[in-house]
Specification:
about 325 residues; protein disulfide isomerase activity; redox-active center; alpha/beta; Thioredoxin_CS
Length: about 325
């Protein structure tokens, strides 16, 4: 008998939907090798004959023996690598723009060189750091900030999450955002002296969903999704209202306001039976709740969400 023992297992994703979503399973069969409960799973992408599978397993078991010695050293580049152990201390003071990612994520891979360049250009700026967290390794940190899709870009100020970035991912877009966040300041002087408190502006937090992050994003909590086409006039008119709705929902940790561009991700829209734009669908814990077909003004949308939020909170209390 092997020490430790080797188990060959299987999961039916039509039954254990939450478990499969947690491990980013988007196609079948997906084969993953787990060394222990905390280590990153290794996805198998080779041939599915007996010899190939056995060779893969033997390699994984061999690698496990000297994993610590083979661990790569921390990056010496401008992007700071954060872990479950050093994350809290790093963000405790100052401003920090942090990328939460997974190594297998295609969007993360495309963003990586731009993220490095952003860090390189801001390297001399002592007022901000550019960092990253591998969520396949440091799950506790990512879970604590409700990271449900990759990459997720969060800005922190003095130990607190200040904003989630949802804009373009070109270098210029990212630099402008950092500049904007650094220039935002709170003016807080005593009211008794005739002065007022001005809070930071709440930025829109609409999550763009795609083929890779759609299922994980809707897997937990309430997710209100706008399915749209960029050329659609009704969609264009709804866009600022949708941004406003995301601002008003920011205080609810279990609520996400999201969007899917059906001209880019037609498969998602087809699966959700989207036949016109915009189509607004509310999901709860990975399941469709209802199509929204009422007025699209901000008051109606907020009332709709508050009704469902209240229902969930009431159910949790019972």
């Amino acid at each position: 008998m092997m020490d430790p023992p080797l188990l060959i297992a299987k999961v039916d994703c039509t039954v254990e939907t939450a478990l499969c979503a947690k491990h980013e399973v988007t196609g079948y069969p997906t084969l993953k090798f787990f060394k222990d409960s905390k280590a990153e799973a290794t996805r198998y992408k080779g041939p599915r004959d007996m010899d190939s599978l056995q060779g893969f397993i033997e390699k994984q078991l061999s690698d496990a023996g000297d994993e610590e010695a083979a661990a790569p050293p921390p990056s010496s580049g401008p992007v700071i690598e954060l872990t479950d152990d050093n994350f809290s201390n790093h963000i405790e003071t100052g401003s920090h723009f942090i990328k939460f990612y997974a190594p297998w994520c295609g969007h993360c891979k495309r963003l990586a060189p731009t993220w490095e360049e952003l860090a390189q250009q801001l390297k001399g700026d002592k007022s901000v750091t550019i960092a990253k967290v591998d969520c396949t390794v440091h799950r506790a940190t990512c879970d604590s900030y409700s990271v449900r899709g990759y990459p997720t870009l969060l800005f922190f100020k003095n130990g607190e999450k200040a904003s989630e970035y949802s804009g373009g991912r070109e270098l210029g877009d990212l630099k402008d955002y950092v500049k904007q966040m650094l220039e935002k300041k709170k003016e807080n002087v005593g009211v008794n002296e005739g002065q007022v408190f001005l809070e930071d502006e709440v930025l829109p937090q609409v999550f763009p969903l795609d083929n890779e992050n759609f299922e994980p994003a809707i897997a937990e909590g309430l997710t209100f999704v706008k399915f749209y086409a960029p050329w659609c006039g009704h969609c264009k008119r709804l866009a600022p209202t949708w941004d406003d709705l995301s601002k008003k929902m920011v205080e609810h940790d279990t609520v996400k306001i999201a969007k899917v561009d059906c001209t880019q991700y037609a498969d998602i829209c087809k699966k959700q039976q989207v036949r016109g734009y915009p189509t607004l669908i509310l999901f709860k814990d990975g399941e469709k709740v209802t199509d929204y077909q009422k007025a699209r003004d901000i008051e109606s949308l907020v009332n709709f969400m508050n009704k469902h939020i209240y229902t969930e909170e009431l159910r949790d209390e019972l």
